[in-house]
Amino acid sequence: MRVNLNVAIVAMVNNTSNEPSNTSRNIVECPELLPVKTEDKHIVFKGEQYNWNSREQGIILGSFYYVYFAIQLLGGLLSERFGAKWCFGIGIGMSGVLSLLTPLAARWGTAAFIAVRVLEGLFQGVTYPSITTATSRWSPKEERSRISTIVFMGVPMGIVVSMSVSGWLSSTDLLGGWPSVFYVFGTVCLIWFLFWSTFMYEFPADHPGISKEELQYIEKDQEEKLQKIDVPWKDIFTSLPMWAVAAAHFGYIFGSFMLVMEMPSFLNQILHFEVDVDGLLSSLPYIAQVFGCYISSYVADRLRKSGKFSITAIRKCSNSIGMIGPGLCMLGVTVSGCSPWITVTLSCVALAFCGCTYSGFNVTHVDMSPELAGILYGMTNTLASLNGIICPTIAGYFLMSGPTIANWNKVFYITSAMFIVPGIIFHLFASAEKQPWGLTTEKDSKCEVTKF
């Protein structure tokens, strides 16, 4: 839902009336790529096209995150208070409704289009904290890495489907061309909501079909829950391990957003791929990420069961691979020149490494405090989601003088640094042990707390 616009916008924008000199400059830079494009095939996009320049496109792509970042903490609080089932379900369901309205909003004008994207960000802002809360309630301690990773594997899998299908839909006559992207995914979200609301249960004990043995296995390591949530705000905000997790989350999302939001434009502007091929190639790295996610989570849980390594050591090792590896790959992209296959291969390897973070910082929120996992994730994702605004702004700034290889390399240098530096910070200062402020039962908690 968030990334389909990154592909569809290629079809929505009338590039023939925008920055023609830059287009010709790109062809001169990579002349050997011209034969790669399908001969005698020039895609004529269906549906209205808009004269949005690079700056306007950056604003449109970033508009989803104008409210999204600010709603994260509230999403964590709401999911802990009222339940992850309905917070997550309503967030996705309403996003589906807004997706169906997107083509109409685009016809009304740029302001209406941006308003719909802002509202989508508002409703989706509760989803990550909510699913983290649900994961903490359904995950046995020994299988936490794998279950959390399997849940979050839906992100790269969704990106694979969204980017490849969006590219194909944008180049067809189905439902008017690019508008079909929003109609199809909006409809899928509404159908999903019906299944979610029917078959999802808030707690394992609520499930009518769960066995007594399975329930005991899931709940054996879970702490006593309070009727009211005691949130030790002061201790959380002054916790160095917590800030290390926040730094890793920020850096990872920065790098991921650059790949998700800007790579389709790079493949189109520099390497001259048509939008249908562009969407497919942009999705390939996320297939690699799915495999990286599962392999790293399996290894992490095996190491944890062996008892030879501390949980902190496992998280730090996984996270270092998952952030320093992609940073080095992004440096490789800067020297790949006009080679499309080296660029795509490095992107695939980068996101395969990124999969390791799902056994790194991404699950550390649950390790530090299972009871407050949704709130903690909401806090770090608040900072991380600012990248939805920061990334297109930075890319737009460096590409303002033209989408040349030199300008794109500046974007990739920054992306590399934002992977590597926060990865080092996490390795030095993070902890995956349950924190003193994470003990939220009334009789054990000695922290300064605020009741919600």
From TrEMBL:
It is found in: Membrane. It is a multi-pass membrane protein. Coiled coil: none annotated. InterPro entries: MFS, MFS_dom, MFS_Na/Anion_cotransporter, MFS_trans_sf. GO terms for biological process: monoatomic anion transport. GO terms for molecular function: symporter activity. Its main location: membrane. The chain crosses the membrane at residues 59-79, 86-105, 150-169, 181-201, 240-260, 280-300, 321-342, 375-399, 411-430. The keyword NADP does not apply. Residues 1-434 form the Major facilitator superfamily (MFS) profile domain. One of its GO terms (cellular component) is membrane. It comes from the Eukaryota. Keywords: Membrane, Symport, Transmembrane, Transmembrane helix, Transport. This is Major facilitator superfamily (MFS) profile domain-containing protein. The lineage of its organism: Eukaryota, Metazoa, Ecdysozoa, Arthropoda, Chelicerata.
